[in-house]
Design a protein that fits this description.
With about 400 residues, the protein is an all-alpha fold. The protein is built from 18 helices and no strands.
Length: about 400
């Protein structure tokens, strides 16, 4: 296999691994990072003119992020093994520049993008088969027959399905013929059905509502854009009264929040989140400038808990289920600003690209921003890898302009 095909095969494998089993994702990431390192060491990327990825903001912010977390090893309050493990978790950011390095042309990026969407279609169809109680022998998730998630949890796959619905919807304009155009629409609708009918994850529901709202916003003429501010609440009301799982889960959330107001130690999903978010804010307030270092959230939470009455117990989870607060505890207020800067950098890069890719990429970014409000979506292995691989593939496709595929007028 020549060097071009080897690069393409590795990048396509990594792109296809998003959303599959952890073993496949880990193998894909390892091969991807090693291959990108080999290419860079051999100096085959040419000048800045030959490598359009070098003009992007995203790789630069990723370098700053990794340096910030690595530098905080000097003052982290966490045991060193935990701190190094946390640095490793944020290493998943490297798959984005690695894909940009390996995919040197629009044609190569198109193959990787096709591998990505093909794997997502396989995942969606597998989930629907589980929903209709058709045996899926490759499903490895715990309680797959009950939760209908194929390789992960219903929470992760619900978020992923919402993201994939947006990607299929916006990339339908790139379809070279009408059958594929309509197939993309069908996959988008299947993915939305996955979110609101199959899965019960509230974060997935919120991300799905955000994806639909964005699509409507972009579809409206500019003179009606201001009126689109009422679209999200209207979409939520429609989903609430149309889908039983949406109504049940958000009604349960209201009950859980009310219970937390009466008893802060309430052991419900929403109650636990509110409790640990309050503790995270207290930790940030104690070290607002530098934070307490990478991997320190568990240590700082336990330290605060020890100061409370004996009825409080030690931590049983490893993160605050909120990415912004997690960065704030580890790197101070600057950490939160750094995460927001990363989101802004990716947004600026997508704004330079063709409309279908720009909208698909911005949808992924919006989904990440919403998901991080309720989960540590970049710190967590599975969903974090999915987001990084999704952004990497779309950026790699978008930076090469229109040199291979032309947007077809339909």
């Amino acid at each position: 296999m020549n060097r071009f095909n080897a690069r393409l095969a590795v990048a396509s494998l990594a792109a296809a691994s998003a959303g599959l089993s952890i073993a496949v994702i880990s193998l894909g990431k390892l091969l991807l990072l090693v291959s990108a390192l080999v290419v860079l060491l051999r100096g085959k990327q040419g000048t800045a003119e030959d490598s359009p990825w070098q003009s992007l903001w995203t790789p630069r912010l990723i370098l700053v992020i990794l340096l910030a977390f690595a530098g905080s090893l000097l003052w982290t309050s966490a045991p060193m093994d935990q701190a190094l493990g946390a640095v490793g978790k944020y290493g998943k950011f490297l798959v984005i520049p690695a894909l940009l390095v390996l995919l040197g042309t629009r044609r190569e990026a198109a193959f990787a993008l096709a591998a990505f969407v093909g794997a997502q279609a396989f995942l969606l169809l597998s989930s629907w088969l589980l929903y209709f109680y058709v045996p899926v022998v490759w499903a490895t998730a715990s309680y797959a027959k009950d939760s209908f998630a194929v390789f992960s949890s219903y929470l992760d796959q619900g978020i992923m399905s919402a993201v994939v619905a947006a990607i299929f919807w916006h990339l339908k304009a790139l379809a070279p013929n009408r059958p594929l155009f309509y197939a993309a629409i069908a996959m988008s609708l299947l993915a939305l059905g996955n979110v609101f009918i199959v899965f019960t994850g509230r974060t997935g529901h919120l991300v799905g509502l955000a994806m639909v709202s964005l699509a409507i916003f972009w579809a409206l003429p500019r003179r009606y854009r201001l009126a689109s501010l009422v679209v999200p609440p209207l979409i939520f009301i429609l989903a609430f009264f149309s889908f039983d799982k949406v109504a049940q889960r958000f009604s349960a959330a209201q009950t859980e929040v009310s219970a937390y107001a009466l008893q802060p130690e309430s052991k419900t999903s929403s109650g636990i989140r509110l409790y640990i978010w309050q503790a995270s804010l207290a930790a940030i307030a104690k070290n607002p400038l530098t934070g307490t270092g990478v991997g320190s959230w568990v240590t700082e939470y336990n330290r605060l808990e020890y100061l409370k009455p004996p009825s409080h117990q030690r931590l049983v989870i490893g993160n605050p289920h909120q990415e912004y607060l997690l960065w704030g505890v580890q790197l101070g207020v600057g950490g939160i600003l750094l995460l927001l800067a990363f989101l802004a950098a990716v947004m600026l890069d997508f704004l330079k690209m063709d409309t279908p890719i720009a909208k698909a990429g911005q949808s992924v970014l919006a989904a990440l921003a919403v998901s991080c409000l309720f989960n540590s979506s970049l710190y967590d292995a599975y969903i974090g890898d999915f987001f990084c691989l999704s952004l990497g593939v779309l950026l790699a496709y978008g930076i090469h302009g229109q040199d291979i595929l032309k947007i077809r007028e339909l």
